[in-house]
Amino acid sequence: GLMWLQHGGNLRHTSEQNDGVSRYGWLKHDGENFGVQEIRDEGLVLRTEFVKQPGGDHGGDWSWRVTVKMEGKGPAPLLSLFFYVATDGQGTLRPVLENGTRLAAVAGTAEELGDFTLTFLPPTGEGGEEPKYA
To answer: Which of 18, 61, 113, 114 sits 20 to 30 Å CA-CA off 128?
Structure first.
């Protein structure tokens, strides 16, 4: 899952009516293999995109991208993104660190999936430049 927090704002985990998020919803999806959703929250535009490559014993491989932009002018506020991972029922998870500090992946085992790895690529800035913080 994904949670986000703008400096001085509320920690968000979901988007629901009457919670102050100005707009949210799917822009495109086929209900199975790809989707693009957008959440607009106090000048923040948070876009998540996923695509599934069918195959394997458990349905295929998934890729997910999160893009953050700010609407309007002025300096962008400090923003934190929190990714979390859990297994349903029985399973194990273990962190995979890069250089002993950066979470590069989460490896796990689940009854439904067998062995799996969730890989986190380093964040990038617009145009491939490095983000201010990571």
So the answer is: 61
Judge whether residue 131 has pLDDT over 70.
no
Residue 6, token pair as written in the block = 């703008």
**Tokens found for residue 82:** 């929190």
**pLDDT score of 52:** 92
Q: Which letter does DSSP use for residue 87 in this model?
A: -
What CA–CA distances, in Å, run from 56 to 53, 72, 115? Answer: 9, 44, 12
Tens-digit pLDDT profile for residues 12-53: 887 776 677 788 889 999 988 999 999 888 888 899 999 998
Euclidean distance between the first and the last CA atom of the chain, given in angstroms as a whole number: 18
Q: For residue 35, what are the contacts with CB-CB under 8 A and spacing of at least 6?
A: 26, 28, 29, 49, 50
Number of CB atoms found within 10 A of residue 20's CB: 11
Residue 76 per-residue DSSP state: P
Q: The whole model's pTM is what?
A: 0.76
Which uninterrupted H or E stretch holds 24? strand 23-29
Q: CA 4, 6, 11, 15 torsion: positive or negative?
A: negative
SS3 state of residue 127: helix
